[in-house]
Design brief:
2 copies of one chain form a homodimer.
Chain A (H helix, E strand, L loop, with lengths): L13 H15 L11 H8 L3 H13 L21 H14 L5 H21 L5 H12 L3 H18 L3 H13 L1 H11 L3 H16 L2 H15 L9
Helix pairs in contact in A: 1-3, 2-3, 4-8, 5-7, 5-8, 5-10, 5-11, 6-7, 6-10, 7-8, 7-9, 10-11
Chain lengths: 235, 235
Amino acid sequence: MEDTGWRPVKRTRTFEDVLAQIERRITEDGLTVGDRLPAERQLAEQLGVSRSSVREAMRVLETLGVVSSQVGRGPDAGAVLTSRPDSALTDLLRLHLGLATLEMREVIDTRHMIEQWAAAQAAASRADTSALAAALAGMDAARTAEEFVEHDTAFHCAIADASGNRLIAAIMRSLRDSMRRYSVEAVRRLGDTSVLRADHVRILEAIERGAAGEATRAVSEHLAHAYPSLFAGPG
Amino acid sequence: MEDTGWRPVKRTRTFEDVLAQIERRITEDGLTVGDRLPAERQLAEQLGVSRSSVREAMRVLETLGVVSSQVGRGPDAGAVLTSRPDSALTDLLRLHLGLATLEMREVIDTRHMIEQWAAAQAAASRADTSALAAALAGMDAARTAEEFVEHDTAFHCAIADASGNRLIAAIMRSLRDSMRRYSVEAVRRLGDTSVLRADHVRILEAIERGAAGEATRAVSEHLAHAYPSLFAGPG
């Protein structure tokens, strides 16, 4: 394209101004989870903008998981600040996977990195493993691939929770949720899940014994069994 | 709360139906980056909903980084599908950090995990290091903490890019962007950046030599120098 010497003027849209003001109240005035924002009409009056601009800003904040949706609360209730980074991350990953701009291989490699780290942390801190044992029992009782994947997801998210890092746990949960369909297919293709069961027991026992290195290796070999065609192997 | 035996009816909001239909077109009909969605008015007519519901759905998709904002294109242009997961992730992390539901320690531990992994991958694949060298030169020429952090961010994002995993690179970029203010304070507190410089040279040379283990150790020690009070140390 010919350079005319002109540059486009950056036009800020009204809802973006609303967003910026809400974000400033959060970071500078210390608004936090549980605090209520003014009702839509009141906020629109105070900011001198249309109610639809306020509504658009609220949709953005809901999408990012920082205000709760107020379905059925009526327009005067005012949105409540919340913090659900994992649901926001899940929507984000699912859509970018849908657009095929991220490959399943990249998601599984990311999961591999996180899960090795989390298993080692959980082992080192001798974390509580009761959620892992419960998920294992759930997998044993599962009658369909969907049910199996539900409890399998709980097992692996419990490892991330046990690491004690909430950001890493949120990323893990969103990775698993966004690849749910793919996991169900992988379990169906595998048919027999006894190898996966043995892997899960090995991971659980290594974390219980506080054996970080063994937990890391068990996670790697488990992913190689679960995704034989995709798994990149230890870097 | 007393259990009355009644459960709230799940009410779907109109813009959520619009979103679901757009997502179905993406995943089932293979709409992808560069494809154009119908204009706001046209989409509202085809779906039998108000234009404001369509606009709310578009704000959600913009927020998630899957449609580009059409500022100045006029309402008939129609949004274009895009894929910018890192800008979406940055907004998400910045707001959750602002709400103080994530601690800087959790962000830095996540960065440590990613950066060790990425440096090892980059070394193992003998990745191109020219972007790292350019960022190093930028840091040497920096006159303020802000300028230093800008090039420092470029250096560390270049390591993640060199790993070849776009999801991990997007997470890294968003972590760095969301903690920018904190990084500037850390550099100011440190005053002398010569230790950081030596660390960067060591990371760069280890990647160039293909020494994955040395690159991993160099990343760890660098973060301990940069954030002495916060850094958790190797797990």
